[in-house]
Amino acid sequence: MAHEGLWKQLVGLDRAKTAQRAKCKYLTDPDRYVITLLNTEYIVNLSDKDILSVKPGSTPVPAEFIEQLCLLAYLINARDVPLAGKLVKPQPLAAGQFFFRGIHSLDTEKLQEIFGKNPKGLHRIMERFDAEPCEFGDASIRLYVLPRIPVTIVIWKGDEEFEARASILFDQTADRQLSLDALGAAARLTVDSLLEAAGEKHGKTV
Length: 206
Hints:
By secondary structure, the chain is an alpha+beta fold. It has 2 domains: 4-77, no CATH class; 87-202. 35% of the residues lie in helices and 24% in strands. It is built from 8 helices and 10 strands. It has helices spanning 4-11, 15-22, 65-77, 96-99, 108-115, 121-124, 174-177, 180-202; strands spanning 25-27, 32-37, 40-45, 50-54, 61-62, 87-88, 132-133, 139-146, 149-156, 165-171. The strands form 2 sheets. The protein has a 5-stranded antiparallel sheet, with helices on one face. Strand 4 and strand 5 form a beta hairpin. It is globular.
């Protein structure tokens, strides 16, 4: 079973307190959490130890490996603390300067490639994620990858003088809600979801 160690930790936790910490619902019969990941509802079934993605009008489907990792790690680690309201890159987070490098670096290149020529394309897909526009760069949005994990995406347009740039920013409390490996996975999932939405909406272009 995937993530067996995480499941073992989760089922041993107090259900009501976990739901409060994670800002999600806990329901019984069957024993489960209902939680939102990137504006999609997921059912975390404690009895069967499976996770289903539930999209309106579609049959529930098993969550992918990376989605399971993000959800389980979040339910285990989430804390009932307010946002700091201060945006940071991943490196200033506790141990972030050592973790977010090499293979663990955030994949901003894909965002630059897709949105660098037309940053406003980011705004055209933000409704899918219930995101809100921000005032950074040439285009930026703020979305919740998990109930206590906002992510801010910033795009600077490229031109003849400057290359396009992209940043992925977290609230300063992000490392209190998720371990760094799960936070990196959540960022990758966010990037992939944005790129998929951009391709679906505009035929692989924005």
